[in-house]
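A favour, since you know our structure tokens better than I do. What I am after is a single protein written out in full by you. Could you add the entry underneath, on a fresh line?


***
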Amino acid sequence: SSSSVVANKGLLNKPGDNNCFLNSAIQVLWHLDVFRKNFRQLNGHSCMGASCIFCALKDIFQQFQYSKDEALPPTLLRSALAETFQQQSRFQLGLMDDAAECFVSAITYVSTMVIHMVTLAKLQVTYAPLPHCIPHQKFGLSLVEQCVCQCGATSEPLTFIEMVHYVSASALREEDVAMRIRYGTSDQKFGRVVRVASSWGDMRSCPSDCGAQIEMRKVLMNCPDVVSIGIVWDSAEPQVKDIISLVHALGTTLKLTDLFHTVVDERALRADLYLVGMVCYYGKHYSTFFFHTKLRKWVYFDDAQVSEVGKRWSNVISKCIKGHHQPLLLLYSNPNSSSISTSSAP
């Protein structure tokens, strides 16, 4: 079936390999139905030979689908990433790195190969996304940022694409408390909690110097099928009570109209995205929770170890608190997403 796969495979992480960040990124890419189904349609690309991320990702996906092994080696993709990002000193063999940045770098680089926009020194991002560009059509938040003051002054609009929407863990916790006091609950309002928390410490001076401090307004121009929320912690070893309050603050539904001041695309006005995945961190180690669409259960991936957690989000909360897992990356997906157009793909 193209919707999901029943067999859950782990990924190897031998002593000294420090593959856990990559393994988490691979599990996210494989279990995100939106990415897996669309990536399957793409074949032609600007191949980089032995260091080709596109080929390495195709290879690991083939192993996920057909291998009889319970745990797979991520060796090819690890080597391809190390070679590709050598000049930036990122994702190098044997060294630990960031799972969220690995996830974004992999999907972005795959697309640059498909649309023939690869440079080894720097990723090029197009602001006129092609129909077959998975990151920009499915993952990218196409935003316009602008200051609008009550005095009538406005700043020059800034247009950019955001692959991960970051928010402070402490701001998220405090805004969740404020929302519960104000409304009696923060359920179904997680997008608003994230929007307000994201603006903390980001006040700007009025463009005409009237003296006012104003919030930067963000307008969403498109309707992405996947929204990635990155959580930035003040400490690599936070107090357990902070982990508990943060985990309880997380919402399982995300409305794009709550997340941004204005949405332009009519589809975004109606879109509800649902929490399907979460990358966590504990003790210098990454692991991943993902909702398996065919099993209808949450599954926990810790390198080669794979275990079912349960059917409910509350089961994930319990395991997170028990294991002191810090949520770092949340994946929200539109269950009614459509396939990309491959008519313009090579």
About this structure: The longest strand covers residues 272-281. The two ends are 25 Å apart (CA to CA).
